[in-house]
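Note to self: keep these together.
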Amino acid sequence: MSAQPMKIPGPDHPITIEPNPKRVMVRWNDRVIADSRKALTLKEASYPAVFYIPRSDVDMTLLAHSMHKSFCPYKGEASYYSIASDGERSENAVWSYEDPSDAVSEIKGYVAFYPDRVGSIEELTS
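Structure:
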């Protein structure tokens, strides 16, 4: 866990994590890189909802660990991955909290994708 000060979600900055009942699929360059029926939906304050997908449902062979990191005072330190395939690359398109704060411990072992750095992120009914 980072040595930076952590905050606890509350009424002024709520965070909820719920299982997503739909199938979540992520595509990049016409290729499915994630396909899950076990995704989590994280809603934080007024930010758009984020889908966290278990690594077991992600083609991790397309992800290259990046040196980039960021810090969220509510979730902890995020590690990043770039997507690389067929000579193309999307830098820092994926992030993961390897050791998230206790408040969001459910997202450990999951990754999330920046919508503007992949082709699409879809919620499907089938």
